[in-house]
Amino acid sequence: MHVRHYGIFVAYPPTVDLRDQGLGRHLAMFLKGAEPIDDIKFTILCPSWTKDALESLFESEQVSASIFDVVAPSRKPYALRLYELFRAYRARPKRPSLVTRFFGAAVGSGKKIVDTVSARGVAVYNVWSLILFVLYAVPLAVVFLPFAVILSPLILLVSVVGRLSFLWKYIGSRIAKNKWVTVFRRYSSLMEKPEAHAWVLDLFDKMQEKELRRMWSKLKAVEDIRAWYCPTAFWPAFHKIKAPRLMCVPDVVLCDFPVGFSGVGGDRFLRTFEAVETAIRGGEYFVTYSETVKWNTLVDRYNVPAGNVAVIQHATNSLDALVNIHGFEKGDVPSRIFCQGLLVDALRKSGNYAYAANFSNLNVKFLFYASQLRPNKNVLLLLRAYEHLLRKRYLGHKLLLTGSPTAMPEIWRFVVENRLEGDVLFLHGLSISELAACYKLADIAVNPTLSEGGCPFTFTEALSVGTPVVMSRIPVAQEILSDEKLSRLTFFDPYSWKDCANRIEWAVHNRQELLEVQKVAYQALSGRTWSDVVREHVDVLEKIAVRAQSRL
């Protein structure tokens, strides 16, 4: 049997975790869809630092290794290895100092003794109980009095220093003007989070440039590839491959939300935007997920010939196989218990703050939004709607988000200023099983996004495990979910937090009605599989391969 061989080009920079990237999951589902097709195989060309991450991702997503090969330079640069060792060292659990542990133990023991003695003291009601109390309390006082004598001045000193904090602020402001202190602070900041500094990012860029040259040397070993596919438009270097090429442009949100992304990335935003534009203008054949992106972005904005752009919509993304347990008389109960265990694991490793890590109410009701925190994701609107529902409408639900609050400081600032630390929980770095468990346990899934490349995965992911969805009314979603009743019950205005709040509140109180309507749409969409998506991509790759051969 003749096997057709196609290439996939991936060139993420160092430190990017593919588990946090939508592209990573999309690529895994794409390759899983290729498994039933016997006559095709894919080779992934990637940097040395991406190979292990890809293989780990595909293993967690249960992608068969027989359908793909990974070709990459053999060894990571030493500088990157040192950086990874440093980051692992910084992330290690930090034990308190001996002095801190000593004072902590002393204060803790003292508090226990005071509590015990106080409890016995309030129970004294006659002479005999008074005598017993004195016999109990006096020896303890004799033993621990020296410690109290030593600690009391220290506690008093700390109290006095705290009350003179304004003096320390003044002294600190005077010290801060010293140029050497400024240099030291910059050095400390660099050591604390090096990947956030432009100097380190510039070094990573240079590292990536050198790595691309090493990747080109690997192309000689895969000369039988008929055509290449690039799953995103971040990498202009893709066009250096001397073979038929198909580039995917999911969207260009950097162009649609320039102010928001510039606030997040600074100069990095401009570089990324320039890279995307260079990649699009240097390409010939493209694929995208929706007619909206094809016509509004590629044809109208970048003047790409309409005949050179193929629209291939997503298939359903079902998560039910990961969390549904069958064969028990109690129906869905075992599955929910299993999911609750996965939710506890996700909370334990959240690492954001103690409340989430120690949360133990397994029967809590919550709203769920699975997404990274980016300007186009519209998370602040969701938070405003949620705060209104919590405080004015007395909605007894938590809100679970999968992004890291450090990605957009204004989001965490909103949470703190509105005292939502105990109501909004951030779970990032979820495994695919933990993600499925969150969807299944959620009362309602929410997606307030302002822009996506195609209909958000939220709809099919949530419904695959029996959870209804409310979503923002955006063109790419309306292309797929076009039924009038479905649209009326599902969508809200993404620019109105009040409309978002009203839709969530209605969905919570009419959950079963919404679920029944959306199940019909989900069943219709389930007829399209990821194998269909792969076949349509292969058809396009074959067309451009044949067209390239005819030019020779």
Individual helix count:
24
The termini sit apart by 27 Å
As residue ranges, the low-confidence spans are: none
Largest sheet properties: 7 strands, parallel
Mean pLDDT: 82
- Assembly type of the chains comes to single chain
Helix content: 55-70%
Give the strand order, joined by hyphens, for the main sheet.
3-2-1-4-5-6-7
SS-derived structural category: alpha/beta
Radius of gyration: 29 Å
Strand content: 5-15%
The outline comes out as globular
What is the tally of beta strands? 13
Written description of the protein model:
A seven-stranded parallel beta sheet has the order 3-2-1-4-5-6-7, with helices on both faces. The mean pLDDT is 82. The protein has 24 helices and 13 strands. The longest helix has 37 residues, at 127-163. Helices cover 56% and strands 9% of the residues. With 552 residues, the chain is an alpha/beta fold. The protein has helices at residues 22-34, 48-60, 78-90, 98-121, 127-163, 165-176, 179-192, 198-218, 253-256, 258-265, 267-281, 291-299, 320-323, 333-348, 354-357, 379-391, 409-417, 432-441, 458-464, 475-480, 484-490, 497-509, 511-525, 530-551, and strands at residues 4-9, 40-45, 68-71, 227-230, 245-248, 286-288, 309-311, 366-369, 398-401, 424-426, 444-447, 469-472, 491-492.
